[in-house]
Design goal:
Elements: H1 9-19, E1 22-28, H2 33-41, H3 46-55, E2 56-62, E3 69-72, E4 75-78, H4 79-85, E5 93-97, E6 103-108, H5 113-124, H6 133-140
Parallel strand pairs: 1-2
Antiparallel strand pairs: 1-5, 3-4, 5-6
Length: 141
């Protein structure tokens, strides 16, 4: 499977709105060992890559970057300010957004591949609209 090919936040959000797909933003810190572990173990998985490419627009954001500016929902922010606005409290954190940028949820910390894929399916299938993750996961067993 081809690598994910991370996008900039603005690119991912524009594509998500156009395609009406949810957005997944991965927040990282360059120094973060758990971020590197997810990058090495989770994101290269062929099932994860295939599901992300089919159901999401995705971007990687440096939650410590106070210089690179972007526009998000009409606001001019640095990547660090956007990370804070989305509730980032640690690294790595994956944030899921509606196509218009409305917050769905965030998943903090390292997540093993199978669990991450289950989370992607929960959000990508829009099951989150009608049930809890626990209910969804119970039905998948």
């Amino acid at each position: 499977m081809a690598p994910i090919g991370w996008k900039r936040v603005e690119e991912a959000m524009a594509a998500a709105e156009k395609k009406r797909q949810e957005g997944a933003h991965r927040h990282l810190g360059a120094w973060c060992p758990w971020c590197r572990r997810m990058q090495k173990e989770v994101y290269p998985d062929s099932a994860v890559v295939a599901y992300l490419k089919a159901h999401f627009e995705y971007a990687r954001l440096n939650g410590e970057d106070n210089t690179r500016r972007l526009t998000f929902r009409g606001y001019d922010l640095t990547e660090a300010e956007l990370a804070q606005a989305l509730g980032l409290t640690g690294y790595p954190t994956t944030v899921f957004l509606e196509p218009d940028g409305t917050y769905i949820t965030r998943v903090p910390g390292f997540v093993p591949t199978e669990t991450f894929l289950q989370i992607l399916r929960f959000i990508g299938s829009e099951a989150y609209r009608t049930q809890s993750f626990e209910e969804f996961a119970g039905k998948q067993r």
